[in-house]
């Protein structure tokens, strides 16, 4: 009877999974930014275009954390509303819309 040999590929598997996760995070951040911009236009939050053009995403150097948003100070009033302005959220709906396409991101990231 021959001897069996077990080969451990743990580090390679961990590296491949991490690369896969980073790709999904990057594609998700790009999608949320794009979807947020689409919603800004759809909800007619565009006046000067400043808010629309300020929406962006950033990914931390480790590639495992992404943020999508704006540095425009009045954005919060548009998104959550005030006494005189009804809320017109874009980030949460963009994330909700991402749920529809995330499976595709995961499938394509593994190629």
The number of helices is 4
The number of distinct structural domains comes to 1
Strand content: 5-15%
Average pLDDT over all residues: 91
Q: State the end-to-end CA separation.
A: 39 Å
What does this structure look like?
This protein is mainly α. Helix content is 57%, strand content 7%. It has one domain. It has a two-stranded antiparallel ribbon. Helix 1 (10-42) packs antiparallel against helix 4 (91-109). The mean pLDDT is 91.
How would you summarize the topology of this molecule?
Elements: H1 10-42, H2 50-54, E1 56-59, E2 66-69, H3 75-80, H4 91-109
Antiparallel strand pairs: 1-2
Q: How would you briefly describe this protein structure?
A:
The protein contains four helices and two strands; from the N terminus they run H-H-E-E-H-H. With 111 residues, the chain is mainly alpha-helical. It is elongated, with a radius of gyration of 20 Å.
Provide keyphrases for this structure.
mainly alpha; two-stranded antiparallel sheet; elongated; 111 residues
